[in-house]
Amino acid sequence: MQDTIEFEPTAYHIKKSNEGAALDIKDFNLWYGEKQALFDNNLEIQKGQVTALIGPSGCGKSTLLRCLNRMNDLVDDLRIEGQITVDGFDIYAKGVDVIALRKRMGMVFQKPNPFAMSIYDNITYPLRVDGVTKKSILDETVERALQQSALWDEAKDRLNDSALGLSGGQQQRLCIARAVASDPEVLLMDEPCSALDPIATARIEDLIEELKGTYTIVIVTHSMAQAARVSDNTAFMYLGRLIEYGDTDTIFTNPRKSRTNDYVTGRFG
Amino acid sequence: MTSYNEQVPPASGAAGLAGVAARDTVAPRARRRFSADLSALGEPALWGFGGALALGIIMIAVFLAAVLYNGATTFWPKPIDRVELTDGSVIAGTERRGTIFRPQLGSLDDETRAEVEANDGFAFRTLYQTANFDLYGDDFQWVADYEVENITQPEDFYYFERQTWGVFIGRIVGMTIDGQEMDYDPAVFSREQAAARDRFREIRRIERREIGGINYLIERERLAQRRAVIRQGEEAAAADIAASQARIAELQAEFQELQARVNEIRAQDRNFTVVLEEVGGRQITPEISQIVRFFPANTIGFLDKLGIYFSRWWEFVSAEPREANTQGGVMPAIFGTVAMTLLMVVFVAPFGVITALYLREYAKQGRVTSIVRISVNNLAGVPSIVYGVFGLGFFAYAMGGTIDQLFYPEALPNPTFGKGGILWASLTLALLTVPVVIVATEEALAAVPRSMREGSLACGASKWQTIRYVVLPKALPGIMTGMILAMARGAGEVAPLMLVGVVKLAPALPIDGFAPFIHLDRSFMHLGFHIFDVGFQSRNSEAGKPMVFVTTLLLLALIVVMNATAIIIRNRLKRKYATGQF
């Protein structure tokens, strides 16, 4: 038991590394009830880099992403096989503290989902549920997270206003600020720009560029252009299988598999 | 319509095509298209929906208008008619209402009969409140139009509201002030009446508060003695009992003193009387203190009428009832209704919300939760009287009986909690309204978007933190809506209350100045039951009828006030949680 309990519950979240954590997915299978959604996925995600998951709708890229912080635990009737490790520790082992795991991984969703609280309360939420009450720490975090998510200039004068009054793009950047507030090692992004206009999308992409290096970023995207722009490595998935994985330039210019080629050149998908 | 039809090709079908080909007329096509268009647009259904809404609104509006009109006009002072009848008798009274009726033709003289027969056998009659129940044995008299010889409104007729025997209508012929007989003088009489009412209130205060308090304390001493005997045995308790007896003796001395003072005031009060004469000449001589309110109904001006109107309203909401609830106020009933409803909310809110929270958030969704959910929904359809029976059997007799055995053995065989009371009534109503709260809370919880919960969980919040800080605040307005519905339902419910603690006349309020101040075992009065009692259970239902409307108006107003308060609180909470810290 002792070696599997890696994420001990702590009053304060302790960051393990300043360059992000490496994720390793080994022989990973997943079933929703009778239906198998992921087949024998093997993927090594490098620390500190941006990894894009691309593929047509329903190929399982979001499912795979949501397995990385065990968000899929909420789904009834879910069965998995295989292993996912974060810096070498199995997150699906028995006795793992899921809450501590999620504190190491920020997540940004497809649609902006700020809570019905003030901007300040939204950003400090991960710290407050962690038991942090000291005003100076909270203030500091709010400023850092807002600056990291490039929202500080727009939001600094209205920190106590409701977050629901922000525009869609601002709300998504607020969600990124919330995700980085607890200073995680991994940032999971599930199509973060799908509900945004091109200008807001460009800002988020700049942001990803800036956050690279500090966090390991895994981004699911429908836009191949976006994957090509922001990611270091790209994984192409099709029907629950990982078809090809390599650095982004190779995948987009010289893929080994013909199906990858067909997809990135727009012949299907 | 025509132009539209001309642009559209006819519907498929041999007849339509044949019609176009053969005659090129518009009329048959127009008929066919007309019906097709209508149903396609859903137009008839729309009329149905609109009609249903309009019907509902009209019914509610008529109901509210009837309650408002009757309730608002009841307390307005009405003139006194002196009516001479054809048989030579004379009555005096205020007009209540009129109606057509079918007189027995055999009892009429020829001329009247012809008149009535010309009117298809119908005639009109008016109900007069003749009052003077102590003299006539009845408060009301029907007078048919054909019986009336002459109607006048004499200036010297007064309308007296009395402490007992109800209203008196008649003239003042003399008075006795401090034993001195004298002629009627309005100024002196007004002054003396106010003084006499003060005496009356003083007597009542001593009797109710002070003597009532002493009785309460003596009873407590008596119970304490019995408890000492039960707990310690006859001999061991002897010392305690002796001390208690001494205290009782003290209290009884105090009681005698107060009683003497009451008797003194009473004796003094008997020296102030007034001689009243009804229209037929018979006289009564009541004490002036018996007269609650009096006014010359036919000469009084508008402002005075307004004053009387509001003083009657004030008495209605602030005083205790008299004359078997048909007169006086309903303050104890207002108090009972509000206290019971608030107590019910205190029970139903946590119970319903916690149940729904478990059912929706924690329980595994499956057959068992479905069965529980269906059962809860069906509970809302159980007749409320069944809840009353359950409340009486389970809460009052079983639970209350056990409490009595354990904690109040000295009072047995008189029950303390083992009978209907405000605690059991509010618990019964909580049971009755809990399905509403559960269903509303579940709906509100289900309406919280999944993305919110995921956002919170992804931040590293536990399930409980997610529910506490994200789900519940978001669902709170919906939960409050359920609570408001439950409150409205509970405040308006009567049937189960009649079994578990509502009484026609409660001797004391559930909250008073004696420890422990809040007496949850006491029975109480309730506006809903008051309506039923005054309208249908009293000796004099005609006298109670206006009170039915007034009480209904008051009950509606009370529910509106309570709901409005809840809605304001809900909106406050909505705003607070929209930007709140925690």
Instruction: Provide the spatial order of strands within the biggest beta sheet of chain A.
Output: 6-7-8-3-9-10
CATH homologous superfamily (4th level) name of the largest domain in chain B: MetI-like
Biggest beta sheet summary of chain A:
6 strands, mixed
CATH topology of the largest domain in chain B: MetI-like fold
Please describe the topology of this protein.
The complex is a heterodimer of chains A (269) and B (582).
Chain A: E1 23-32, E2 35-45, E3 50-54, H1 61-68, E4 78-86, E5 89-90, H2 98-103, E6 105-108, H3 119-128, H4 135-148, H5 152-155, H6 168-181, E7 186-190, H7 198-211, E8 216-220, H8 224-230, E9 233-238, E10 241-247, H9 248-253, H10 258-264
Parallel strand pairs in A: 3-8, 3-9, 6-7, 7-8
Antiparallel strand pairs in A: 1-2, 1-4, 4-5, 9-10
Chain B: H1 2-7, H2 14-22, H3 27-41, H4 43-73, E1 81-85, E2 90-101, H5 110-118, E3 123-129, H6 133-136, E4 140-144, E5 148-152, E6 158-162, E7 167-177, E8 180-182, H7 186-232, H8 238-269, E9 273-277, E10 283-284, E11 291-295, H9 302-318, E12 321-322, E13 327-328, H10 331-362, H11 367-379, H12 384-407, H13 422-446, H14 450-458, H15 463-491, H16 497-500, H17 527-537, H18 541-579
Antiparallel strand pairs in B: 1-2, 1-5, 2-3, 3-4, 6-7, 6-11, 7-8, 7-9, 9-10, 12-13
Give a structural overview.
The complex is a heterodimer of chains A (269) and B (582). By secondary structure, chain A is an alpha/beta fold. Chain A has a domain at 1-8 and 21-102 and 223-269: 3-Layer(aba) Sandwich (Rossmann fold), CATH 3.40.50. Helix content of chain A is 33%, strand content 24%. Chain A has a 6-stranded mixed beta sheet with strand order 6-7-8-3-9-10, with helices on both faces. A 4-stranded antiparallel beta sheet of chain A has the order 2-1-4-5, with helices on one face. In chain A, α3 packs across α4, α3 (119-128) packs parallel to α6 and α4 (135-148) crosses α6. The radius of gyration of chain A is 18 Å and the shape is globular. In chain A, 46% of the residues are buried. Mean pLDDT of chain A is 83; it is low at 1-13. Chain B is α+β, with helices and mostly antiparallel strands. Chain B folds into 4 domains: 2-64, no CATH class; 81-168, SH3 type barrels (Roll), CATH 2.30.30; 173-300, no CATH class; 331-521, MetI-like (MetI-like fold, Orthogonal Bundle), CATH 1.10.3720.10. Chain B contains 18 helices and 13 strands. The longest helix of chain B has 47 residues, at 186-232. The interface between A and B is medium-sized, with 34 and 25 residues.
